[in-house]
Amino acid sequence: MKNEDWKMEKHDINNLEDIQCLVDSFYGKIRDHELLGAIFNHVIQDRWPQHLKKMYSFWQTVLLEEERTYFGAPFPPHAKLPVSALHFDEWVRLWHETVDHYFEGIRADEAKWRGSKMATMFLSKIEYYQNHSSHPLM
């Protein structure tokens, strides 16, 4: 389903179709963002379909009480990115904006909370690795 076809009556995040709408819309904003777009597009290049599929599985596992569909470690691919608090502030702003545009409810609130917590954790770890010679465990 295309984001422009999405019904505008807000509801909670309830299923994979909702996750796909959220992820597609959010990463559409990221790809076009003045600060974030260059970083994401450089790293992901022509692998956007694979990245989006992985994000569907990640958020489905995190937000929906279904069988676990995401297996992996989300941090290591981000460990050496050239990013700072400014990048994460923008990421969180866009995440919250996208969630709020389409959804409302307990899972929508949880999506925003988890996104914010993940950004805080990732930034802390990235800053650590930027200032130390160690590498994250894969």
What do these coordinates show?
By secondary structure, the chain is mainly alpha-helical. It contains five helices and no strands. The chain has helices spanning 16-32, 36-44, 48-63, 85-102, 106-131. The longest helix is centred in the last third of the chain and has 26 residues, at 106-131. The radius of gyration is 15 Å and the shape is globular. It starts with 15 loop residues before the first helix and ends in a 7-residue tail after the last helix. The mean pLDDT is 87.
Give the arrangement of secondary structure elements.
Elements: H1 16-32, H2 36-44, H3 48-63, H4 85-102, H5 106-131
Helix pairs in contact: 1-2, 1-3, 1-4, 4-5
Query: Low-confidence spans: pLDDT under 50, at least 5 residues?
Result: none
Number of strands: 0
* Count of helix runs: 5
Principal-axes geometry comes out as globular
Mean pLDDT: 87
Structural class assignment: mainly alpha
Order of helices and strands: HHHHH
Hey, roughly how much beta strand do the residues contain? Answer: under 5%
Helix content: 55-70%
The rounded distance between the terminal residues' Cα atoms is 34 Å
Please outline the major beta sheet. none
Q: What is the CA-based Rg, rounded?
A: 15 Å
